[in-house]
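Objective 1b of the project was to move from sequence-level analysis to a structural picture of ligand recognition. The entry below was assembled by the postdoctoral researcher (A.K.) and checked by the PI before modelling. It contains the amino acid sequence of the target and the SMILES of the bound compound, adenosine-5'-triphosphate.
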Amino acid sequence: MVTASTLLTAAPMETPSATPASRSFQVPTRATDKEKADTLIEIDNFDFYYGAKQALFDINLKLDDKRVTAFIGPSGCGKSTLLRCLNRMNDLIDGTSVKRGGVKIRGVDINGRDVDSIELRKRVGMVFQKSNPFPKSIYENVIYGLRIQGETNKAKLDEVVEKSLRGAALWDEVKDRLHESGLGLSGGQQQRLCIARTIAVSPEVILMDEPCSALDPIATAKVEELIHDLKKEFTIIIVTHSMQQAARCSDKTAFFYMGKLIEYADTRTIFMNPGNPQTEAYVSGRFG
Ligand SMILES: Nc1ncnc2c1ncn2[C@@H]1O[C@H](COP(=O)(O)OP(=O)(O)OP(=O)(O)O)[C@@H](O)[C@H]1O
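Corresponding predicted holo structure:
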């Protein structure tokens, strides 16, 4: 059986061939205690519906700036729904509504009338479960957002391509083939290309919806290492089914069950000393 302490050991259970020594990070110790983070996103009394069906119930959550927060919980508990509420991706689904409460980013209600959802999504980028590079060159994939914004300065575009690919830990692997198709990359490289595309427009927040679920253990380890590096510059919220991944990558973890937030605390507490018996049962593999 998976135990909480197993999850917090240095050797990743699902990455046996990625040597722990090659990984530049460990499970967070007390980083959040040492250096208190500011709140970037505040979710208050938030109720969300798909048509008549309520999917989220009275969610209250403060997400830290420049930290990694993991959303965990059994299938259908509302993790992805809440993630998509943070950049209003759910607006694209007919019949969705926020019936009560709201989400503020730096104090601004993102569902306010004067907030443009396209602008919001530039600030709050998203990386999906399945990598989705466009059928274009690696270079064009990275600068896609800037092209849409009308940027034509070649020197600027070149600079963004290099910076974003370096930021996504992909530059060395692709610098000699920037004008080849992004579809020719491996699955793990494609996912990092999508991360490069996301960071090219300089978002503040990166939402990741099970970004490693289609990747092999080596590619997963690279993306996890990347997540650790990216939080120096970005606030990251990751939905994951892998408790090992949550334990390895995140500073704080929120556990959801049936549309409700059950417990939110620093990741070490959630895995080693959860306050709620449902959290304990879930992280120790007894349900879900
Ligand atoms: N487009 C949709 N239309 C109607 N109901 C939806 C839609 N998307 C999700 N739901 C419902 O909302 C609830 C929460 O789903 P959600 O996908 O957010 O859960 P999840 O925790 O991310 O699940 P999983 O881990 O399986 O991805 C579920 O009951 C689901 O059936």
